[in-house]
Amino acid sequence: MRFPEPGKNSVKTRGKWRSWAPAILSPCLFLLAAEGVLRLCGFGYPAGYLRPLAIGGKAYSIGNPDFFRTYFPARLAPYPDPVTIPLEKSPDAYRIFILGESAALGIPEPSFGFGRILERMLRDRYPGIRFEVINLSVTAIDSHVLLPIAEAASRRHPDLFILYMGNNEVIGPYGPGTVFAPFASGTALIRAAVAVKSTRTGQFLDGLLGRMGVNAAGRAKAAGGGDAMGRGNRAGAEKWAGMEMFLDRTVSRDDPRMQSVYANFRKNLDGILSAAKSSGARVIISTVAANLRDNAPFASVHRPGLSEPELKTWRGLCDSAAFLAAAGMPEAALRLYMKAEDIDSVPAEPRFRMGRSLLALGRAEEAAQAFQTALDRDALRFRADSRLNSILRESGRGRSSEGIWLADADSVFRSAAVDHAPGAEFFYEHVHLRFEGNYLLARTLVPYLDSALAVSGKADSRSSGPLLSAEACRASLALTGWNRLEMAKKILAMAERPPFSGKSDSGEHRARLKREVDSLGAYTGNDSLQAVLEEYQRAIPAAPGDLTLRRNLGDLFYACDYLPQAAENYRAVLEGVPQDTRTRQMLAKSLAEQGDGKGAVEEYGRALEFTPGAVELRNGLANSLAGMGDYAEAVRQYAIALQGNPDLAEVHFNLSRALTALGRTREAAEHLQASRRLDPDFAPATPENGL
User: Fold this and answer.
1) How far is the C-alpha of 261 from the C-alpha of 270, rounded, in Å?
2) Residue 262, Cβ neighbours under 10 Å: how many?
């Protein structure tokens, strides 16, 4: 075999390159030029998770709300609680980042989530260490979003990451049951899409497609076929409506797309661990607990190919079994449910009812397994299933030498629960924890934190005494009866809407919450409110730097119509967290209701500097302007709000009133009609009110 002479083929190679170079370089140069022009023109938004801010002369990184627009349609992008991270870390500080979704955040009220309880426990246990517990969890996100959050946090001097994640892997962005972004089967495709949309050019194209009715992030028909009910996985939610948005997004346990869910979760989890390791931080991976006993499945689907006669027989068996169970004959009911399963073992609901019958027969361990199977079969997948928890266990078990520990919260909750099946004693509904559940989760994590602190050299590995009691944590956080009442009312309002209202146990769930609301109703009386105020007055001096306590106290004063006191506390919060737009909105409301329209306008304006796309803030600003008689500017602000979301009845109504004040009656009538069309039940726009 003869080798070619040196340089003999180089002419051919150069010729090919010269022919291909323009085809490759021209589009690249065009895109680079377009990106530069768009940036110079100020188009688009920075897509990084963190951005800089100076507070009181010191440098901080704060959360960037625009980051979430990369993963969500603009109208559905969350505005998370403010995140504030000092750029300089003091030598005595131990920085902990919590990663997860709404359950990790502490919904219905993050002030009393497990991260806040954990901080109190650690502060009491290790008084010589200044713990910075920073919760980066956000409602509705999943591991695709958590990975870049973890990567950003890994560059901010972390000592420890706590992972409590997995509930949203199907319904979060790029999952098969999502309403946010089209399903994608692999992380490479997802990360490429995110990278493109992080550029100004990608944002321009996405906006253009959105105006054409083909929003790539939220309305395009997804690849990968239909869902378990035979419908295409089209994303299409136009406005936030909570869990109700997912009613037609059922995904069965046997759906082939679930294999992509598990593979993507594992890859993203590996990426988070890699980011933590690169920073030198330790990691606690927790499994995810769920309400097994007191939360019936949200949806059931049947196996493919089930004939009509089989379906009729199946329904008859289930109806008869339900009748027998209600009549106090659980053994007979159980036999019929098992016969129904012989016909179709895919639906979740019969397995849940089998669990109830097994409990009635005293067969607790079998009941717990039946409840878990019902969760795994639930076709509206709002809870981490057993496979996702298995991935968490596999990723964390036996890795303490690497600085990675597994906290098996799922098993701990089962052991602590009545009949080995966690229920209403720990959960408000499907996954969101009561204070008792948050305390149990925090307590579960402490031994692993002891180990992490020992490895870091911050503390001795030996226990320094008993953990802070639940009552002491409650008092330290000022969790009062008034707060419990507000949380129960929030959950009750949610329970009265789909998908909760359609569950087989919805009646007992609502009844349980109504009893709780009734029992806490006494905290609205003056004497009880005085006692609540005294609890805050004890808690705040013990934790003078806790701005969450001051914000909650401001909320209490606002609810009781003590507006100057509310404003005073809100201002104290904003000195330390100026980007807290929710607190600034409450300050603006307090000022407006005191007749200080100018002050309210200023506060709304400052809030919009941080979140210019927040329609609720824009509406509040316009209301304050109208209250001052500046109707022309109010009309302009209402119009901007409607550009962000044209489907808000309240904004149309408010705009109609401002236009009427300017004598523009024809336009006012159009917006009044729009208000009625969008929400016929919107009270101010009803004929009975003469409007």
Assistant:
1) 14
2) 15
Domains 308-377 and 614-691 share a fold: yes
CB environment 442-476: b (16+ within 10 A), e (fewer): bbbbbebbbbbbeeeeebeeeeeeebbebeebbbb
**In the CATH hierarchy, which fold is given to the domain comprising 614-691?**
1.25.40
Greatest Cα-to-Cα distance within the chain, rounded to the nearest angstrom: 101
| CATH among 3.40.50.1110, 3.40.630.40, 3.30.540.10, 2.40.30.20 for 29-294+380-470 | 3.40.50.1110
CB environment 84-102: b (16+ within 10 A), e (fewer): bbbeebeeeebbbbbbbbb
Domain extents in the chain? 29-294+380-470, 308-377, 614-691
* 85: three-class secondary structure by DSSP: strand
pLDDT digits (tens, 9 = 90+) for 417-448: 989 999 999 999 999 999 999 999 999 999 99
Looking at residue 13, its pLDDT comes to 54
Q: Are 311 and 481 in contact (CB under 8 A)?
A: no
Q: 308-377 in CATH: which number? A: 1.25.40.10
621 token code pair: 């600003």
pLDDT digit string (tens) for 452-478?
Answer: 999 998 876 555 678 999 999 999 999
Side chain identity, residue 473: C
**Which of 562, 638, 633, 555 has the alpha carbon at shortest distance from 593?**
562
Provide CB contacts within 8 A for 321, sequence distance 6+: 332, 333, 334, 336, 337, 340, 350, 353, 357
Amino acid letter for position 256:
P
Two tokens, residue 377: 């079969």
Q: What is the DSSP secondary structure assignment for residue 433, as one 8-state letter?
A: B
How far apart, in whole angstroms, are the C-alpha atoms of residue 554 and residue 335? Answer: 57
User: Residue 345: helix, strand or coil by DSSP?
Assistant: coil
- Distance, in Å, from the CA atom of 74 to the CA atom of 44, rounded to the nearest integer, reads 12
Determine the average pLDDT of the residues in 388-415. 98
pTM of the shown model: 0.91
